[in-house]
Write a structure and sequence with these properties.
- With about 325 residues, the chain is an alpha/beta fold.
- The protein is built from 11 helices and 14 strands.
- The strands form 2 sheets. Strands 8-9-10-7-11-12-13-14 form an 8-stranded mixed beta sheet, with helices on one face.
- A hairpin with a 5-residue loop joins β9 and β10.
- α1 crosses α10 and α8 packs across α11.
- The longest helix has 16 residues.
- The chain is globular, with a radius of gyration of 20 Å.
- The chain starts with a strand and ends in a 19-residue tail after the last helix.
Length: about 325
């Protein structure tokens, strides 16, 4: 029996994590033990909506009172470092929100704390678990090593997103997904453009081993919501639309796969949160791995922050899924 607790009953948690845990709770296997939030009204409403047994307004009170096997921590960017830093010493596996801190230094501190206490962690980069991305990844990973993608082109467009932390709070999804397909970056060239009428926009070229490349375009105020990825390898092209949850694959000039989620698919399934939460609980139960890790997330945060500055600061990257060897 896995006893699960949630820290954070805000909007994102209510829309995605709560429904996912409710769907995955199985009598005798997964119990939703407790939920904690500083806002008493929110936490009571959350518990009733998703079936949590008890409510708390203090994480330390909750963890002293409850026997917990897994924690899902859904916190704002500004609070993640402090809250997760307080949770890690308990040694309980944690699924935490991205980014793991506001800076690379904060994320590295969490990595060190997790290691010192032997705490397993997984970071909520839910794009990796979007059904269309999962479908595409499975197709790509069935190919031989020398058939790995040699080019990735990704675009994130949004409407009227002017928050200062957009690049590390939202666009980091684009970065992490790119790294998850392409591996560990070797060099980054990025540009940051600012104008009074068009706001801020970014583009980046990320180089990987054997000449593989990712090209990223990030436009926070393009008047439309779009998030797409195209993987190009020897004789094939994989086109992913994460917002419509659709993937189309061409190989040898033919369309060999077209998949799309049903239009009535619930939001927490479309966003990948259900798949992500299931993967986390499987890892806690010893039937999977905690990926992406805090170290993966720290690497993605450093790349995203570098793109945000419009220049690259050399560092050691530890994240990504290395599939070396381009087409030969």
């Amino acid at each position: 029996m896995l006893h699960v607790a949630v820290v954070g009953a805000g909007g994102h948690s209510e829309l995605n994590h709560g429904p996912s845990l409710r769907d995955l709770s199985v009598p005798g296997e997964v119990e939703l033990t407790a939920v904690c939030d500083l806002d008493r009204d929110k936490v009571v409403k959350y518990a009733r909506a998703f079936g949590f047994a008890r409510t708390y307004t203090s994480i330390h009170t909750m963890l002293r009172a409850e026997s917990v096997d897994a924690i899902v921590a859904v916190t704002p960017v500004a609070a993640t470092s402090q809250v997760v830093g307080e949770l890690l010493p308990y040694g309980i596996p944690i699924l935490l929100e991205k980014p793991p801190g506001r800076t690379f230094r904060e994320s590295e501190a969490l990595v060190a704390t997790a290691r010192s206490h032997g705490t397993s962690t997984m970071v909520s980069f839910n794009r990796r678990f979007v059904p269309a991305v999962k479908e595409a990844r499975e197709w790509v990973e069935r190919r031989p090593a020398d058939g790995a993608p040699r080019l990735l082109v990704a675009r994130m467009l949004r409407d009227s997103r002017h928050e200062e932390d957009f690049i590390i709070g939202t666009a980091i999804h684009l970065v992490d997904t790119a790294l998850s397909f392409m591996g560990t970056p070797e060099r980054i060239t990025s540009h940051r453009r600012t104008s009074p009428t068009e706001g801020v926009s970014y583009d980046a070229r990320i180089s990987f081993a054997d000449g593989r490349i990712a090209l990223l375009v990030i436009e926070p105020d393009a008047g439309v919501d779009e998030e797409t990825y195209e993987l190009i390898g020897c004789g094939y092209s994989v086109q992913i639309d994460t917002l419509s949850n659709r993937v189309v694959i061409y190989e040898g000039g033919d369309r060999v796969l077209e998949w799309a989620a049903d239009k009535d698919t619930p939001m927490h399934v479309m966003t990948g949160c259900l798949n992500e939460t299931e993967a986390f609980l499987q890892a806690v139960a010893g039937n999977g791995t905690f990926v992406p890790t805090l170290a993966d997330a720290a690497a993605a945060l450093d790349v995203a922050a570098s793109i945000g500055r419009g220049r690259f600061r050399s560092t050691t990257f530890r994240g990504g899924h290395d599939r070396a060897d381009g087409c030969r």
